[in-house]
Amino acid sequence: MMQLRSGHVPLNSYLFRIKKSGSRRCELCWGIGRLEIAETVVHYLFECQAYAAERYDMDKALGRYSRDLKSIMASMKRVKELLKFVGRTARFKNTLGDSIGDVSQLEPEEG
């Protein structure tokens, strides 16, 4: 979660900045319509059309908070929904492993 919040997550925008990628662009958007869009955290979480189906469940669960990363991070329940989305996309499977979307180890929210 800290990587997503800080932007230090293996998306092309960050990887380009640390010279681990030759481009900032979202390869999925490039492949869909030759769109030259930077693959940032905001783009990945809330905009990339390649993940629209995976995002649908997150949007339903988060309601009015579905596009507000700060509000999502303020609640363990919303964080769990965000992590489920990340797991469904499998975007970080090669770099971070299979457990990225597993929220079973997170403690339930109090109150």
TrEMBL record:
Organism domain of life: Eukaryota
Protein name according to UniProt: Reverse transcriptase zinc-binding domain-containing protein
Organism: Laccaria amethystina LaAM-08-1
